[in-house]
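Project standup — Tuesday

K.O.: blocked on the structure for the chain from last sprint. Re-posting the sequence here as requested.
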Amino acid sequence: MKFWQSTFIALALATAPLAGQVHAEEKTYVFEAGQVIDFLFLTRRPNSDEAYRSYAQDAISEARALDYKGLSGFAITRKPTQGNYYPELLIFGGWPGDFEDRANALDRLKEVVPDLNDRRLDIWSRFDMTNYQISQEIRFDVDYEKVQVLTAYWQKDPSLFKAFKTSFVEEILATGGELKAEFTEGRSPFGYEYNPDYTVIAEWDTQAAFDLFLAKNLQMDHAGVTHVNQMYLTPIKPGS
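H.V.: unblocked you, prediction finished:
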């Protein structure tokens, strides 16, 4: 079993996930209102199986007791198209309540597992987290045979960035892409900073269609942008 597979199974499938299958060719992701969603970008260290088993027994089991729910995720198995970041996994997790409730849950988890961060570093060389408070349900389907891409932007100038986002979405649609989900106003806990101003998950029917978008995307005016990460996402099939 690959490193990312064991991580995915424990973190994303340990509790009954809200993500599932529409039919054999698609997968559905559901983020219900009234919770905070963790976006966890993870890169596993080699020779960390023993540390991982101990962490799963202590930290993950305690997180479940605090009503954490694994909500599936994506593998990141292809070289990113923009930026300087190449994690192995994007895992989604849900916590009941708002940002304050999420912060309190982390405090309680640290009380039970005081060396939480140290133990994570025994397992993952990168453990980046963005929290998003969900006020309205977000539901989207992805097709296993199509091309899914996550793009994350950090803004430089608010006015220019607003116009840039509009043009960015227009280019997605103009090249046959489908906007699956947008995320803004995230937060990162202290020590886990990864908080772009705008995160988008989009899907194209073919690689050629995405390549056309990418060419146009790279030619856009980035005066209002300070940084970007853009990476292919691979939906993980049940039983992988």
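K.O.: great, moving the ticket to review. Residues 12-22 have pLDDT under 50 and may be disordered. The beta strands are 26-31, 35-44, 69-75, 89-96, 124-134, 138-143, 147-155, 178-183, 198-204, 225-235.
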